[in-house]
# Entry
Amino acid sequence: MSQAAAHPLDPIFHPRSVAIVGVPSGGGSMASGFLSSLMEQRFHEVRPLYPVNPKIDEVAGLRCYPNLQAIPGPVDHVISLIPARIAPELVEQCVEKGVRSLHFFTAGLAETGDAELVALERRMIERLRGAGIRAIGPNCMGLYVPVSRLAFMNGFPSEPGNVFLISQSGANAGDVIGGLSRRGVRFSKAVSFGNGADLKAWELFDYAAQDPDTEIVTAYLEGIQEGRRLFEAIGRCARAKPTVILKGGLTDAGARAARSHTGSLAGSLAVFEAMCHQTGAIRAETMDDLHDLVVAVGTRARTIRGRGVVLVGGGGGVAVLSADALAAAGMEVPPMPESTKARLREFIPIAGTSVNNPIDTNAGTPELMERTLRIVAEAAPVDVVFTNPMFGRFGPPGGQDPRARDEIPAEQAERRAVEAARRSAELLAGLQEGTAKPFIALMRSERGSGGEAVEVFQQEAYARGVAAFSTIHRAARAMGLVLRWRARREGLPPVV
# Structure
């Protein structure tokens, strides 16, 4: 039996059956999405899925039950969509039925600040704990576990991955899963835990640290509950796995919003920064940071050793602004050694080009671009290569003649762009492997390479260990943060 299988939280992530209590009779509400998303993941095809609503007999082709007790088989996990005022009745049904876990999508409890509702939430949690039932929430979206076919929103990938997401906010959890999925990231598990009345962040970090399906951990937190336990659990997690944390509520305005959102006491920036520093976790300052850092530590970008960047493909004003962005992030743009420039000049003409970093070669074929990238990656001052994938270099009909491209039907052009995106990802991955230097793809839009091709490139690149970023500013910042994280980990077990 694995360590994670022995962990007391493991059954929560692998329920043998699910009941949705208060499932709406029609669509159009957020609550109706729980049944829809579970059916989209095809949970009902492999395990029992029980809608509960005393007012209807059937929903979405499934038999609907009046209450938990009317369900003929055992129920492991219950999703509560009912109002707070009748939630205590459901708690008693869960105790009688012997469920393992109860997810309260139900809101309007402690986060309101109302003393009676705070007390109601406390009484329900005490009753559940006394019966050995774990509660997620209240006021949260719950579980996304691809291997168990659990999801709380439509459109989540069904393929499992290696990233564990811990989030107090359901909306932020959905945005992280959706945004990172488009960039190729896949998740082992995700938990939106809301008020954290029972299941708290520290327990989730503790579980993630031991979970054999998880290699990267990321979190959005608002409040600090049981601070010492949280500190110790994050420390265990960050020692074993890259751990990226975004903390909300670090300003007065944010703290007020956190109190009204999940009833959380937010804590100070200095304390949180010190915690990340001492545990070896990576602090994300913004949601963009969180997304970019997960991509960085999930690819070979995490192996960056120094600040020397060579930028290939940025000509003129783009090169100037790119160099500024790199410097602002604490990265360096070293001049190329004379030996490197001499090798480049063997095939790059002088007119309209630059071989002295940033490099603009006007290379018209994948072969010339590959040759350029290989040469500069081998230069002594270079730690990482930034480049535009430039799908158009992979030979549309008519070579580089734009008039020939204009004659291609739109559907055919998109197919060619998608195929070029795959080949471009393969090229960069091969160069990264062959030179032992991380390559960073900059997704500066290019005529004929937008839409589906960009998403395909990001998916293929991530799967092959190549990080892609939407702008050079975000790429440079991510690399600077990764270097800071690597320096902080001195003395800790290696994670790369």
Q: What stands out?
A: The two ends are 26 Å apart (CA to CA). The chain has two domains: 3-297, 301-488.
